[in-house]
Design goal:
Keywords: Membrane, Transmembrane, Transmembrane helix. The chain crosses the membrane at residues 12-40, 83-107, 119-145, 166-186, 198-228. The chain is mainly α. The protein has one domain. The chain contains 9 helices and no strands. 33% of the residues are buried.
C-alpha cells in the first residue's frame, strides 16, 4: 500500500503540490483551519482513486482537471456528498469514543499530557470501529470515482469479500498517520503558541495539510486496492 501510494504521489506530484499550496493559501486568508483541508482531502481521495483505478496522470499543464483521460466529467459533486456522509460517521464514532473516555474518567490532571493521552486512547476506540464501517461500505467511494455501482448492497458485497484485507491496511496506514498528525500538531501548537507571524502560521498550516493529504492518499489507496481486488474474486 505504501509503495503504491508513493508511486502515485510521484507520478502526480503536480496535483499534490498544487492542492497543498491552494489549501494553505485559502486557510491563511480565511482562517478556516480544517474546513478547507477537509474539502480538499475529499478531492484528493477522488483523484487518487482515478489515478490508481484508471491510470490517470495529472500534470503541471492541468493538475486539477475536471475531465478524465477519456474526456468524461469527473463526478466531483457525487463523490463529495458520499465523502461527507462517511466523514459524519467518523465524527459520530469519534464523539462516542471521547464521551466514553470522559464517563470512564480517563483524564489527566496535567493539561500538557491530557490532550495527547485522550487523543491516543480515543483513537484506539473509534479507529477500529471506523475501519470496520469503511471496510464494509467504503467501496462506494472508489466505485463513484469511476462511475460504477455505488449502491450500499453492492458495496456491502464487495466489503465482505475484501474486509480481511482492508482493515489491516487501514489500521497500518491512514490510522497511524492520523494519530501521528494529531500528536505532532498538538506539540507544535504548544511550542509556537505565542507566535502569530505569517511565516509561523504558514508552516503550521502546511504541516497540518501534509498530514491531512497523506491520510487521504493512504485511505484512497487502501480503498482502491480492495475495490480492484473485489473484481477478481
Amino acid at each position: 500500500m505504501y509503495t503504491l501510494a508513493l508511486a502515485t504521489l510521484r507520478r502526480n506530484i503536480a496535483f499534490f503540490v498544487v492542492v497543498l499550496a491552494v489549501v494553505v493559501m485559502i486557510e491563511m486568508m480565511m482562517h478556516a483551519v480544517g474546513i478547507v483541508a477537509l474539502v480538499f482531502s475529499g478531492l484528493t481521495m477522488l483523484y487518487t482513486h482515478r489515478m490508481i483505478q484508471l491510470n490517470e496522470v495529472y500534470t503541471w499543464s492541468d493538475p486539477l482537471s475536471t475531465k478524465g483521460a477519456d474526456g468524461s466529467k469527473i463526478p466531483i459533486a457525487g463523490y463529495i456528498l458520499r465523502f461527507v456522509g462517511i466523514f459524519m460517521i467518523l465524527m459520530m464514532l469519534m464523539t462516542g469514543a471521547f464521551m466514553t473516555l470522559s464517563v470512564l474518567g480517563f483524564a489527566s490532571n496535567d493539561p500538557s499530557t491530557s490532550d495527547v493521552a485522550q487523543t491516543i486512547l480515543g483513537a484506539l476506540i473509534f479507529m477500529p470501529a471506523f475501519a470496520c464501517v469503511l471496510g464494509l461500505f467504503g467501496s462506494v467511494l472508489p466505485a463513484c470515482a469511476e462511475r460504477s455501482d455505488t449502491s450500499l448492497r453492492a458495496a456491502f458485497s464487495r466489503g465482505k469479500a475484501t474486509f480481511a484485507q482492508f482493515v489491516p491496511r487501514f489500521m497500518a496506514g491512514p490510522c497511524v498517520v492520523m494519530i501521528v498528525g494529531f500528536v505532532v500538531m498538538g506539540q507544535l501548537e504548544q511550542v509556537v503558541h505565542s507566535e502569530t507571524g505569517l511565516i509561523v502560521q504558514g508552516i503550521l498550516f502546511a504541516v497540518a495539510t501534509c498530514f491531512s493529504l497523506a491520510t487521504a492518499l493512504l485511505t484512497a489507496t487502501a480503498l482502491s486496492l480492495s475495490f480492484l481486488t473485489s473484481r477478481t474474486l
